[in-house]
User: Fold these one by one.
Assistant:
Number 1:
Amino acid sequence: MPFAVEVSDLEKRFGKFVAVNGVSFAVEEGEVFGFLGPNGSGKSTTIRMLCGLLLPSRGSGTVAGLDITRQAELIRTQIGYMPQLFSLYTDLTVGENLRFYAGLYSVPTARARERIEQVTGRLELTGMMDRLAGTLSTGWRQRLALASSVLHQPPILFLDEPTSGVDPVTRRLFWEFIDDLAEDGATIFVTTHVMDEAEHCTRLAMMHYGNLIAQGTPEQMRREYVGSIVEVRAEPLWDAVEALIAADDVGEVALFGDALHAECTPEVTDPEGAIRQVLQSAGIAVGSATGVEPTMEDVFVSLARSHERPDEVGRDST
């Protein structure tokens, strides 16, 4: 199967500042490929290079079989792109923006009307057509931006933090819509810093300070990069954190709601017992210590702690 996106040793520098540090990965056609990492990890810079909006400093890449340095204009005819920052016209209505972008993508008039009706219905925008885009809340703006990016039914869709700033209901709507697009054969490349959204993706690549630190399916990453996780409820909570961090048998400790997730080192045969012993020895009352399946947040915490920021690598602004 040909790759929809393929990059090798891709790098972007701004002077001495390294935003993306020699990343390599490939995305198969029809995948929902998640590009994960916190703000500042290089996700948006990478996506801009793939969309032909930034030239790489080094390395190579193709999108839809087209070279990202030599065929940027052609690439833009094969993709949809939803940037992280709202970039539609705030002085136009929702309907006017959609009609404008349908024309920009050369969608025939009759087909444009049909597509606008389909997409606005699916994203529940129908009742907002006469509203000025500039008066919309963040969630409605994101719906409009997503609708505009798919009017021409692109085979490859780049979504940069599409759920940023939206409410849980809209987030669920977006991911249902993304899943539907993938079922219809589109390749989706989506960036996010919300780790639980990774569960919606076929495969993942995780960025940290401009470096690609892990790739794989969600299940592979949970299995390969995290040890035994114990969810701990204890009082006082911060004393529990300090005691576990100081323990030889505990690798990573992270707050998880009103509890802690503690990762035990591989040689520990009874993680729950080991955690209880550490806390009780420190005089901390243990409410519960229960083994749980690791989350993608656990995966990221474990990976990030083992990949400290290199001195020569900076961060981009997104």
Number 2:
Amino acid sequence: MAKTITGDALVQALQDLPAWRKTDGREAIERALTFPDFNAAFAFMTRVALMAEKMDHHPEWSNVYNKVAVTLTSHDAKGVSERDIKLARFIDGIAG
């Protein structure tokens, strides 16, 4: 089971991920992204999906045309874990 990141450790992790914020009402982090069009949004989601599968750690997300909303949480840890931070860094790296 992954170790949950809470309190000051989560605040510190989010300082390094300025596009992310703590989700209201639950132990998760989230980010909204906007792309030029659906094609770019879907390409982004495909790249994230391939990494998520390698990590065996899958995001909660939605897509409407050129917008993608991503929520990360580790269900087995009942909160944010290092896996979420690692996937958030990957997402930031490819988001452009």
